[in-house]
Amino acid sequence: MIRMANTISTRIHDYLKDYPPFSLLDPHQLAELSASVTVQYCRPNEVIFRQGEKPEQRIFVVREGAVQMVRQEDDREILVEQCDEGDVFGIRPLINEDNYALTAKAVEETLLYVVNVEKYRETWNANPKIAHYLASSFAEGLRRNYDTHFKNRLFLDQDRYIDGHFHLVEVQSLEYSKAPVTCPSKIPIQIAAGLMAREEVSSIVVVDEKQHPIGIITDKDLRRKVATGLVPIHQPVEQIMAHPVVTSKKEMTVADAQMDMVKHRIHHLVMTEDGTPDTPVVGVISEHDLLVVQGNNPAVMIREIRRSRKAAELKNIRQQAESLLQKYLYQEVSISYISSVMTEINDALITQVIRLCEETMEEEAVKPPGVPYCWLTLGSEGREEQLLRTDQDSALLFGDVPEEEYPAAKAYFLTLAGRVSTMLNECGFDYCPGDMMASNAKWCLSLSEWKEQFGKWIFEPIPEAILHCEIFFDFRPVYGDSSLAAALTDHIFESVGRQTIFLSFLAKAALQNPAPLTFFRGFVVERSGEHKDEFDIKARAMMPLADAARVLILSARVGRINNTIKRFEKLAELEPSNAELFQQAADSYGILMRYRALQGIRNRNSGRYFNPSELSKMERINLRNSFQPIQELQSLLNMRYQLAYMR
Amino acid sequence: MWFFRSNKKRNAEPEGDGPAFWKDYLRLFRTPLPAQTPIHEVPFVVFDTETTGVDPAKDRILSIGAVRVCNWQIDISGSLECTIARHDSNTSPAVVIHGILPKERPNDLEEREALEKFVRMIGNSILVGHHVGFDIAVINQALKPLTGSGLKNKRVDTGALSKRVNPVSGPVYPAGPLSLDDLCKQYRIRPSDRHTAAGDAFITATLLLKLLSRLRNRGVQHLGDLLRSR
Q1: ipTM of the modeled complex
Q2: Do B210 and A35 touch (CB under 8 A)?
Q3: Whose CA is closest to A485, among A588, A567, A584, A560?
Q4: What is the largest CA-CA distance in chain A?
Q5: Does residue A623 or residue A140 have the better pLDDT?
Q6: Touching check for B67 and chain A: CB below 8 Å?
Q7: Among A231, A526, A606, B221, which is 20 to 30 Å from A518 by CA?
Q8: Is the pLDDT assigned to residue A403 strictly greater than 70?
Q9: B218 touches chain A (CB under 8 A)
Q10: Chains A and B: how many Cβ contacts under 8 Å?
């Protein structure tokens, strides 16, 4: 191969191809465009263009240095955006004929690629992806949005993460069940079946005196040959066993095992010391085991959860759910689907834990009070948004009992809740640092006590009460008598209706944490211009949205929708005039959930705090764009509840 | 009349020889660029050559890369990049560095064509290069058999310019000639495509802009200021 005719434009091409909108161009157009670029030098504080100036047919890409976009308002300069390497700015000429709405100024010595777009304006606007990009990054005045067109570009560089993070399940080596259940060939079928039932296995290997396999009996054999009366139950097992046995060596992969099963049309594989029937049995693997190992089936996981009896098993399944989550995230499966699957799994797990704890108490002869109760999840799990195992937030609500029975009932439920909470902790759900758990006597209450508690929060909205509201108002029943929860919800709406100022307090609290302005290099840039190197995605981006959704949905008197995305979608339906904003808020929230979960998976933590330098350029752009609706929602709350006048 | 004509002919004589492009070129120097031309209006051509060695008298040009710089901008579309066909099989050590093998390739130009393109591109611009004296000497050596004379342009050496910006010598800024790599480091310029003529020309152009910006802060406002002291 000869060297390309122009080294310089090739280098420019290689740079531009990583950043939108250039990454969306067809290769020929990008090559042509790269050859026509001008490189512009700007000294510190040099103005590149001014607010009010008429744009020329060109856009700018920061190659080196930094550029600030500021809006002149009276005598003030308001920082609107700070661009660093790879950022595109001044795209107004591509959108409309207006004059620049902002002034662009080099912060430091800066090199820009100036791209003449006169030739491309039409073709770009005709390309939906590019048009979408342009519209979404058109910073001022227009809102940014995400939709399905652009969705698959959210993780532009996902390959980077897939490498090394994903084991190919198919080549994972199998962990076969140790200590397989075996029996001699002469024992009666009834005894063998009893053994299988006791060990909770679906198969038993029939062995000779040296533990070499000679046959296998599965549930299916018992159904077809015994239960039908074909073979009496006192006959020896050799009468019904399948033989010879298909054996395989103990070191094998999931794919090997699957192939063997398909090839021999069997559902169980017997593993022996050397893979032949002439050595002792070391394990058995069933088709079901393979499904579980693959962990790609939420239905299987939920069934497994319902079968589990130990915290360790539940923890294991929840761990598998995390790999499923990771896979979904990288495959850009819709966030509503992901959260509903994860919520199903979490709910099943919580339910199973409660059942197991109830059983244990029964075994210990602790008598339950004759009153229904309902287990409530709060916070993110209450909102059906807990993708990673963050902390447990819960409450317990029990039916009203006569005064004399109250102490016993409360004692029972507190004990139960304590056990549930301990077991959930063993499953990997941290205790709530604020002790907002059903095991806390304050949050394990009867219906009338809860009504009183919510009434207190609503009618005396002191800051601490508001803080509680943010968690407790998102309660959701997961186990027990949900009519109790419904009664509580009705009571809350009734109280809120009588005390409308409460919503203003809630709205004011929702404004406490405005989103930062943007990211710049490795930093979070505040509206004040301050730089920080840690970003709290929960407090600075997710909670402001969740809080706004809660206030607005409470105002709209819509109950039983807890999920922030669903709340915004409902609001969009109820208020067509703000539908666009609400839809964008819903999209933003979905994006934030994704990032948080991804960061959590990458860093093996809750994903809440991270350094922006861990993100790729594209991720930073997406994240930053998702802040936009926060600001607009907050000004909507400000107007609607006239918060400027509130002290 | 006869006297007049003869006089005119004598005056025109330097333009009389050589190919058409050379005549066009020489014509441009009748009106020199005024010394009071503001820096941002000065047309620069930043260039670099790759050669078979370091002796202008003996070694030949392998490639030329050049970009225009004016008004604080580097114009990529007007850049020049050409490799020159070699008809001998002498592989000199420089080939190893530049990676240009003495093999004929379809995009190669004959030396004459390359020189013509280069001369047409530069016109009367100020020639800039890193240790530009060498590159000009190499070009002149190649031009002489064709044109009988060498380049007439004013020149600016980024090596010398960097010493004007930073006259202090010491451990950080060594006293000897500064290499392009050193300056890239100092001025945070990404040294991509080093040792290709075009790559080096582009890097040198970036360096020129950064140096000019610093000199501007010290009163170098016009072409005259730039050319005055070395």
Answers
A1: 0.83
A2: no
A3: A560
A4: 99
A5: A623
A6: yes
A7: A606
A8: yes
A9: no
A10: 71
